[in-house]
């Protein structure tokens, strides 16, 4: 019985995390056919989510990205990572 309650709590906790990531992602990332041919971008910019992920995978730090892209914020980077996380869990 205890294991069932714990599993249910962990499922609810994971669901809450996913919902929070989705909320953060939708506020920071937009898909608009008129911007970058509809690729996901950081809202209010032409910075593609794909670029942020590629730069991070190549070893760039948050500080490197913030320095290179002045309109980018730390929250934008977190939203990008959340989008990738949610997208990969849905696959």
Q: Please, could you describe this protein's structure?
A:
By secondary structure, this protein is mainly α. The chain has a single domain (2-90), classed as Winged helix-like DNA-binding domain superfamily/Winged helix DNA-binding domain (Arc Repressor Mutant, subunit A, Orthogonal Bundle). It has helices at 2-28, 49-57, 62-68, 74-90, and strands spanning 29-30, 41-42. A two-stranded antiparallel sheet has the order 1-2. The radius of gyration is 16 Å and the shape is globular. The model has no long low-confidence stretch (mean pLDDT 81).
Write the topology of this structure.
Elements: H1 2-28, E1 29-30, E2 41-42, H2 49-57, H3 62-68, H4 74-90
Helix pairs in contact: 1-4
Would you kindly provide a brief summary of this structure?
By secondary structure, the protein is mainly alpha-helical. It is built from four helices and two strands, in the order αββααα.
Record keyword descriptors for this entry:
two-stranded antiparallel ribbon, single chain, 4% strand, mainly alpha, 91 residues, globular, Arc Repressor Mutant, subunit A
What is the number of beta strands? 2
- Whole-number tally of structural domains: 1
Radius of gyration: 16 Å
Largest sheet descriptor? 2 strands, antiparallel
The CATH architecture: Orthogonal Bundle
